[in-house]
Amino acid sequence: MRWILYSRSDCPLCEYAANLLQAAGVVFTEVDVDGEASLQQQYGLQVPVIADSINGRELAFPFEPEQVLAFIKEASEGAA
Which of 21, 40, 76, 77 has the fewest CB atoms within 10 Å, measured from its CB? Predict the structure, then answer.
């Protein structure tokens, strides 16, 4: 899966990010950073983070819907 949403449970901002991705029609995998010590150490409280597993780029909160769409569009065009 290309798109990954790093999040944690009971995180309203993570739910916001998931809703943005769903509204944009993006298929993604949601990964709870608290489920793995290395992810918890890497991301700490810096969630949500949208990651492109193909090019390794990440977009960390805070972000606006326009920024998410631009991030996805730019990554998709770069892969074409």
Answer: 77
Q: Which domain holds residue 53?
A: 3-79
pLDDT tens digits, residue range 31-70?
999 999 999 999 988 999 999 999 999 999 999 999 999 9
> Which DSSP helix (H) or strand (E) runs through 66?
helix 65-79
- How is the beta sheet containing 58-60 ordered, strand by strand? 28-32, 3-7, 49-52, 58-60
Q: In this structure, are strands 58-60 and 3-7 parallel, antiparallel, or unpaired? A: unpaired
Task: Quote the tokens at residue 9.
Answer: 């449970």
Q: How many domains does the chain have?
A: 1
Q: What is the pLDDT of residue 54?
A: 94
